[in-house]
Amino acid sequence: MTGSTTLTRRVRQLCLGLLGVLLLAALWDLYKAFGPEAGVTVGEQTLVLPRTTDLAMPHTWEMLQRLTEPVTSARDAPSALSAVLDASGFTLGIAARGWLIGVVVGLVLALLMSRFRTAESALLPWVVLSQTVPLIAIAPLVRRWGSALSFGGFEWTSEHSVSVIAAYLAFFPVAVGALRGLKSPDRTHVDLMTAYGVGWWRSLVSLRLPSSVPFLLPALRLSAASAVIGTVVAEVSISLRGGIGRMVVEFAQSAGGDPAKAWAPIFGAVLVGLVAAGAVGLLGLALRPFALTEPVR
Amino acid sequence: MRAMTSAAIQVTGVHRVFTRKKDQVVALDDVDLTVGAGEFVSLIGPSGCGKSTLLRLVADLDAPTSGSIQVFGKPARQARLDQDYGIAFQQAGLLPWRTVSGNIELPLALHGYPKADRRSRAAELLELVGLSDFAQHHPDQLSGGMQQRVAIARALAERPRLLLMDEPFGALDEMTRERMQNELVRICAETGAAVLFVTHSIPEAVFLSDRVVVMSPRPGRIVDVVAVQAGGLGPSQDRTDAVRDAESFFHSVARVRELLHGAPAPGARGVEAR
């Protein structure tokens, strides 16, 4: 494939992506313009489409316009946009730390499970089970246990708790994806390594890790998304100020008088997700030599 | 038969029984086989006759249930650790993220050869298999036949005196296959390595081999050995395309076919009355 065709494809993808967003915005405003004020109900109670009042559905341009206005009526209040960006940066930082911890833990677990069959049968059910525990339930526990920790000058803060909770979500896709990847080399390759008389470590480095890359990349992306969600939810349940999570709750409270404001942190959350996915995409670019498909036979 | 001390492979009284749940499958039953240094021996037989199992035992990728396997006078395991053989499978098994040259260098890299040596050896081998122009290509840019040539070059990287080949041309089309066979004859003549070659093509086995070992399934046994060289085709290193039209070629092919189809043949041993 030549560079220019890749470039045109990229541009086309970008345009299609933007088109999708515009379409969504258009759909929103069209429904708002033509939909019934009371919404669409099925039977007596069930509302299947929302009310189209300004309170329930602000215009898309109002949402955008609101970003440029001051966040509160206080005199030196920054614009909503800069407040949202600050909060997004804060959340992204915590999510990144959580993602990193999750990736390391996930990789270590996958290595253990691929190395020892007992470890796989002992750990894998717990790994899967761990994801069924509601985040809200573990958040206070993590905070309590964390604050009981102290070594040297290190002090456990709520930010650490949120990172750990994000990691709790982020490690899962990596553990499962990396395990599949580490087990993916075909028999010929494994036999070859045996024939060369190389040990587990050498064959890990020269065969298993490179062949796990095509499995690892989607897992890392998924794990980045999980880390962002985990961070936002944990910020709410631990009541950590400064991030998008609390901002969503706070701004929602003012939705009665200022309906467009509640959307500002939601855009922030989308932004954080996009940046996280983009960062992992860059990582994928660096690992691309290993993401080649199997040779044709 | 050559003297035991010079034998590349010495298989004595080997059994291999696979146990799956309660079923026992006898993959190999009392197999004896000797491959002399520089000799080309093919294993042929229907699916499930244990020919690949036997090759894997020699390569120490699997262990016999009983019996002994010696490679150049050492236990198979020691021979594997000493890199006394090179191996090629039906699937080329090239690492897709390494270049052609990088794939050939793989065993050398794993065994700690200096980079300059690796480079020059890879160049030499690419010359041998006629792929010098493709050194920096990736495997997915090569045809199946070319990939298999790279796999053979890789098997030869450490100058083994024994090559183990498990249906290396099995996935290739007929024309490519014959060309690869001619090349293999030339490569063997140049390297002087002994070869244990698993195939299920009768003409391929006869064309390439000094001796063809015919096997039968359930339980896997050696039915008979057809001495192609003694049958008039001459040593395996000297074969050319002309051999494919020689009368003794057809004679040996017919003989192998007869043994495979289980017709009573004079001198056959171990034929089961089923």
Present the secondary structure layout.
The complex is a heterodimer of chains A (297) and B (274).
Chain A: H1 3-34, E1 40-42, E2 46-49, H2 60-68, H3 80-115, H4 117-130, H5 135-148, H6 158-182, H7 187-195, H8 200-238, H9 244-253, H10 264-286
Antiparallel strand pairs in A: 1-2
Helix pairs in contact in A: 3-4, 3-6, 3-8, 3-10, 4-6, 5-6, 5-8, 6-8, 8-9, 8-10, 9-10
Chain B: E1 7-20, E2 23-36, E3 40-44, H1 51-58, E4 66-71, E5 74-75, H2 76-81, E6 85-88, H3 100-110, H4 115-128, H5 144-155, E7 162-166, H6 174-191, E8 194-199, H7 202-208, E9 211-216, E10 221-227, H8 229-233, H9 247-260
Parallel strand pairs in B: 3-8, 3-9, 6-7, 7-8
Antiparallel strand pairs in B: 1-2, 1-4, 4-5, 9-10
Helix pairs in contact in B: 3-4, 3-5, 7-9
In short:
The complex is a heterodimer of chains A (297) and B (274). With 297 residues, chain A is mainly α.
Describe, in plain words, how this protein is organized in 3D:
The complex is a heterodimer of chains A (297) and B (274). In chain A, 71% of the residues lie in helices and 2% in strands. In chain A, β1 (40-42) and β2 (46-49) form a beta hairpin. Chain A is built from ten helices and two strands. Chain A has one domain: MetI-like (MetI-like fold, Orthogonal Bundle), CATH 1.10.3720. Chain A has a two-stranded antiparallel sheet. Chain A has 297 residues and is mainly alpha-helical. Chain B has a domain at 92-159. Chain B has nine helices and ten strands. In chain B, α3 (100-110) crosses α4 (115-128) and α3 (100-110) runs parallel beside α5. Chain B is globular, with a radius of gyration of 19 Å. The interface between A and B is medium-sized, with 22 and 30 residues.
